[in-house]
Amino acid sequence: MNRLPKHVTLKHLHAFIAVAQEGGFTAAGHRLRQTQSSVTGLIQQMEQSLGCLLFERTSRSVVLTQVGQEFLPRAITVLKEFEGAVDDVIRYGALERGQVTITAAPSAVTEILAPVVNQFSQRYPGIRINLHDSNSRLIQTSVSTRVADFGLTSRWLEDPLLVFQPCLIDQFGLIYPSTEKWPTKQDRVQWRQLIGRKQIGLVDETGILSILRSRIDLPRDVTAPFYEASSTTSQAALVHSGMGVAVLPALAAHRVLGDGLSYTLLEEPTVKRTLCLITHAHYGLTPMAQALFDMVLEFIRNLDLPVGCEPVLAEGR
């Protein structure tokens, strides 16, 4: 196996290229802002380390040997690649290049991440953003396997690989067709009023269903819904069609409410969901991911939230 000479450095490569391009040690010294003797010494060290002459010296000129001619374009390429790599790292640290991947609950994407990502892209136009909406199980998996830099959703299961930072709390309420008139108590519906009503629930992998099933004080019609939908959008569409009613947190309901649907908060008991920013427990965020993470927290603290939602005022990661 060939051994890389220990004493050939970038300084030697700079000197070699300068002498070759300037045609002499004195001119190369001027270009590098070094003395002629310093440049000569660097070339001698390099030739000694490589075991061959790179230049033919005469009293009138300095010209490349055959091996020197072959080495010159490769040395130039090495320097360009190195300087380009260093520049990329500097730009990465300065948030001028890079990529951030976020995965979040659909309501968090619509109400929080979409406007924040827009602000972020204007501030850091060189950073690419990958934004995915998913259910809580897949969001946690994406962060724990480092497919995503961070996630935003409710907790699905405890995971020692993840850190959950609460950032928003929203209360559960009822979505129903606007043509129905529900008896309310101070503009609230009680959970017991849902007994015997067909519920349109969400599939098991969502944090919403996980929260509802963890409560033993809720009607079975809610924790074991008659119908299931894979997303809150489908859930709202089925409610609109008249197939039943659905229970959703306030932020998720705000995203899907449209003409023909109404929403009222539920109480007795009051049930709330906590949305968390999820990061990996053993790996820090990249500079650009941290910048976006901080912007999300700041946005939530100042967001004009729907009724039933409130920010969690805590310090960032």
Write the layout of secondary structure elements.
Layout: H1 10-22, H2 25-32, H3 36-50, E1 55-57, E2 62-64, H4 66-93, E3 98-104, H5 106-123, E4 127-133, H6 136-144, E5 150-154, E6 162-177, E7 189-190, E8 200-202, H7 207-213, H8 220-223, E9 227-229, H9 232-240, E10 246-249, H10 250-256, E11 261-267, E12 272-280, H11 287-302, E13 309-311
Parallel strand pairs: 3-4, 3-5, 7-11, 8-9
Antiparallel strand pairs: 1-2, 5-12, 6-10, 6-11, 6-12, 6-13
What does this structure look like?
The chain is an alpha/beta fold. The protein has 11 helices and 13 strands. The chain has 3 domains: 10-93, Winged helix-like DNA-binding domain superfamily/Winged helix DNA-binding domain (Arc Repressor Mutant, subunit A), CATH 1.10.10; 98-166 and 276-307, 3-Layer(aba) Sandwich (D-Maltodextrin-Binding Protein, domain 2); 170-273, Periplasmic binding protein-like II (D-Maltodextrin-Binding Protein, domain 2, 3-Layer(aba) Sandwich), CATH 3.40.190.10. The protein has helices at 10-22, 25-32, 36-50, 66-93, 106-123, 136-144, 207-213, 220-223, 232-240, 250-256, 287-302; strands at residues 55-57, 62-64, 98-104, 127-133, 150-154, 162-177, 189-190, 200-202, 227-229, 246-249, 261-267, 272-280, 309-311. The strands form 3 sheets. Strands 3, 4, 5, 6, 7, 10, 11, 12 and 13 form a 9-stranded mixed sheet that branches. Strand 3, helix 5 (106-123) and strand 4 form a beta-alpha-beta unit. Helix 1 (10-22) crosses helix 2 and helix 2 packs across helix 3. The mean pLDDT is 90.
